[in-house]
């Protein structure tokens, strides 16, 4: 049985591993603060936002979303992991994490297992089998061209159980994602 903090640590490490292997160097500008010194005047500070209106996941909070579908999916032990992730128990043998990824597209979802392009509701998604362990499964659901939410499930028993849970959770939360 997967329980408590140790399951959350495993899920967080799995997500971090999937993200780390998907990161690339180069080309993408990120918003930030720039100090521009001018001759004879005090420096001024400007803030830039990414093109396209900003982060569509800025106001998305994974835990309330999971709580809103918890009775539908019979979820338990819903627990905030950090600012981007919330974890829960799907069954006595399957736990999962719901993580917002404001700077990663679904094409950035990686892992060593089989990758499949799928649809979750009306959205593009990618399913990655065994991104971290032989019995884990990732479903990355597109929110915008460069943002997604990840549902990564881990099972005590089988890859199929993890993928079934990740897909069902992704399907349940899809209507609650930002448009």
Separation, N- and C-terminal Cα atoms: 36 Å
Strand order of the largest sheet: 3-4-5-9-8-7-6
Q: How big a fraction of the residues is strand?
A: 35-45%
Oligomer: single chain
Radius of gyration: 18 Å
Structural class: alpha+beta
| Helix percentage range | 25-40%
For the secondary structure, the number of strands is: 9
* Mean pLDDT value: 79
Major sheet: 7 strands, antiparallel
Number of helices in the DSSP assignment: 3
Indicate the overall shape.
Answer: globular
Helix-strand sequence? HEEHEEEEEEEH
* Low-confidence residue ranges: 5-52
Question: How does this structure look, described?
Answer:
By secondary structure, this protein is α+β, with helices and mostly antiparallel strands. It has three helices and nine strands. The strands form two sheets. A seven-stranded antiparallel β-sheet has the order 3-4-5-9-8-7-6, with helices on both faces. It has a two-stranded antiparallel sheet with strand order 1-2. β8 (136-144) and β9 form a beta hairpin.
Notable characteristics:
two-stranded antiparallel ribbon
Please sum up the structure shown.
This protein is of the alpha+beta class and 179 residues long. It has three helices and nine strands.
Sequence-ordered SSE layout with sheet pairings:
Layout: H1 4-22, E1 33-38, E2 41-47, H2 62-73, E3 76-80, E4 85-91, E5 94-101, E6 115-120, E7 123-129, E8 136-144, E9 147-155, H3 159-173
Antiparallel strand pairs: 1-2, 3-4, 4-5, 5-9, 6-7, 7-8, 8-9
Helix pairs in contact: 2-3
């Amino acid at each position: 049985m997967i329980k408590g903090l140790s399951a959350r640590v495993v899920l967080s490490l799995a997500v971090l591993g999937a993200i780390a292997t998907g990161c690339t160097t180069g080309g993408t500008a990120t918003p930030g603060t720039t100090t521009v010194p001018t001759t004879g005047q005090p420096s001024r500070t400007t803030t830039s936002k990414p093109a396209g209106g900003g982060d569509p996941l800025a106001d998305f909070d994974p835990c309330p979303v999971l709580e809103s579908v918890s009775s539908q999916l019979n979820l338990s032990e819903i627990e905030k992991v950090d600012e981007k992730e919330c974890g829960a128990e799907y069954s006595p043998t399957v736990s999962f994490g719901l993580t917002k990824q404001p700077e990663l597209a679904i094409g950035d979802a990686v892992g060593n297992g089989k990758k499949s392009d799928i649809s979750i509701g009306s959205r593009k998604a990618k399913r990655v089998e065994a991104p971290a362990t032989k019995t884990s499964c990732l479903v990355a659901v597109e929110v915008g061209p460069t943002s997604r939410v990840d549902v990564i499930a881990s099972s005590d028993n089988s890859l199929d159980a993890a993928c079934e849970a990740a897909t069902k959770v992704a399907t349940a939360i899809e209507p609650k994602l930002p448009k």
